[in-house]
Every structure is written in structure tokens, then in C-alpha cells.
Amino acid sequence: MLDNNPAYLFDAIEAVTVAYPKTFTRLGVSRPIGAVVLGLAATGRLDALAKADAEGSVADRILTGDDLTDLPAECIATHGTGKNARKFSTYALIGMHVAAQVGFGQAILIDLGKVPGTSAAQVQKFLTDLPSMADYRAEIEARRKAAAKRAADVAAVRLTWKFAEKFKAPHTAETYDDVMSERGLTWDQVREIIAALTVEADAKTLADAAEEAAANA
């Protein structure tokens, strides 16, 4: 079952790049072509990856364009002959099909097949530029502004949190009064950020302890 809704495709790419920022930032031939990115999104593969605890070896090969080694020969299409023949996996073929369905013109269809691959951000831009995405563009912009504000809020709270941890200050509303005033945050919002920072710090402590234990074993 393929989903060729441009808004869904955009969100699927967005979700996995948030969960795994390095997924599509590989450079050179290891970066999948834009058609593969669309194929992974349309088949729901990116939804699964965004929710996974880790990429995993097979998923990593799929995303780096090496999935041909994981597929039977009947799932691979070849264009041309000899050493210069280009091989396409099912994801690339699905992506080409979906790209045509959503209404991309010839120039973009060519761009989606370029090597090294078209960046995921560029694929998203192609999607948002579609006439059918006119209304959704405003929602995307609002989400990105909210995400940017959230990142700035967390960064501001983190500074006070580090100070409180270092000098054993209590994590109370009084301690965070300045940052709440500067960022327009409520105490409930700050407490939620503090909880996330604490979980992050605890996880790092456990990881460091495990690494040290392994080194001393």
C-alpha cells in the first residue's frame, strides 16, 4: 500500500530526520538518491525507522543506498549495460512512480535520480512547492517556528539547570525565575524540561559507567 499524499511524505521525512539527524546527511555516493527517499516514505519504511530504537544494520544499508545487496535479483532494475549500468532497488522505482503521481515536472524527476543523492531537505522543498501543498505550507512554517522556540527554551533552561546542579541549588521556581521571565515560560513548562534534562543526564551517567566497566574488564 503506497501513500502518495505530499503532506504525508513530507511528515514521514521530517519525523525520521528529527529522530536520526544524520540519516540523510551522508555525503557522496553513500547518500540515497531522492527517489529512494520518496520510496522509503511512501512505503511507510521511514515511519518504522523514526519509531525504532536504532537504525539497525539492514536499515542502515537501505538508507546508504547499499540495499541492493539485501534484495533478490528480481527486485532490482538495471538501466544500461556494462560497468556504467545503473541499478535501482524497489524503493527507487517506487519513488519514481510516486514522484510522477504527485505531479513533479521533468526537471525535478531528473533531479530526484541524481547521484550523489538529492538531500532530504531538498526533497521536502520539492514537496512543499507543489500547488496542492499551498495550505499545508503555513502549518509547516508554524511547526518549525514552534520547534525553534522549543529548542531555544530548552537551551535557556539547560544553562540554569547546569548552574543548579553544579552549585547544589534547589530546582524550584525561584531558581528558574529569571529564565521563566525571559522566555515567557510557566513553572509547569520548566519542570517538564528539567525532567527531560535529568533523564538525559542519568542516561549519560549510565552509559559512561558501562563504558568504564567495559574498559576495566
What does this structure look like?
The protein is mostly helical. 62% of the residues lie in helices and 3% in strands. It contains 10 helices and 2 strands, in the order ααααββαααααα. The protein has helices at residues 6-19, 34-42, 45-51, 57-63, 90-102, 106-111, 120-128, 134-166, 177-183, 187-216, and strands spanning 77-79, 86-88. It has a two-stranded antiparallel ribbon. α1 (6-19) packs across α2 (34-42), α1 (6-19) packs antiparallel against α7 (120-128) and α2 crosses α5 (90-102). The longest helix has 33 residues, at 134-166. The mean pLDDT is 83.
Helix and strand arrangement:
Elements: H1 6-19, H2 34-42, H3 45-51, H4 57-63, E1 77-79, E2 86-88, H5 90-102, H6 106-111, H7 120-128, H8 134-166, H9 177-183, H10 187-216
- Silhouette: flat
- The percent of residues in helical segments reads 55-70%
* Multimeric organization: single chain
Strand arrangement within the widest β-sheet reads 1-2
Strand content: under 5%
